[in-house]
Request: fold
Amino acid sequence: MTLFQLLAEGSDMLQRSGSPDAQNDARQLLLAAFETDMVHFLLKRMQELEENEDSRSRIRLYREMIERRRSRIPLQQILGCQEFMGLDFYVNEHVLIPRQDTETLVELVLEEQKDPEKSILDVCTGSGCIAISLAVKGGYPDVTATDISEEALKVARRNAAALQCDEQVHFYQGDLFGALEQRAGRTFDIIVSNPPYIPTAVIRTLEPEVRDHEPLLALDGTEDGLHYYRRIASEAGKYLKPDGRIYLEIGYDQGKAVSELLTDAGFFRVRVCQDLPGKDRVVCAVWPGQQEACPESLLS
Reply:
């Protein structure tokens, strides 16, 4: 048995199971099982594997991984890792797998909020990818992150420790801003969030990897997908400093609706920003603070 034969075996099995990227998935699993890289794979792919327990255990592990992927468990959950903003994040079934779409939000904050002394609140942190990326890439020393799921927070804390920013990022368990009850009166310069925003009826149409294996709690935005945006818009002002900023990831068709929610809640300079493919991805706004109404001069 050679590595090349194992790759062909795994690719064929995944292709027949309907895996959308069978060859790449099989290759990634093979490299992980044999703890090697593409350079060494290419050099040794046609060599017969040694007949010893180490080789046999690695072959068993690889085939077990292939079976898990055949059942449409996400590749990232099998490998336990997903890259985001050039950083490696541990993931499991308790957190949403970080996606490139969300990098748009992080990059926007880093571009617009260059003062590293600004305080940040990340609501619905999940794996911690937004909060931790901001701490690592932006050098912000004061990042607070909340999530309703204690299992998700275990993952986020693990990632913060692995990326050596656990002294910068502090995690609290609770429902949205309710997690901050123990920090009564605390306000922030910046609020960021990637809340659940997929309408309930749409979830059953998603790929099995998402629908069946990622946490429903992190996906379901209820009937119209806007439930959490309504709550965040109505409550965020109490946790923002005057002239504070909010950045919300959205679905591609939610820009207008979320913008209206923020405007109705008293935010101004509301705008929608696009991701690299040109789809609406982030809604940003400014909180006027103690002013009773937004001055007309600020709208120009």
Q: What stands out?
A: The first helix runs from residue 3 to 16. Strands lie at 82-84, 87-89, 120-123, 143-147, 169-173, 188-193, 240-249, 268-274, 280-287. DSSP finds twelve helices and nine strands in the chain.
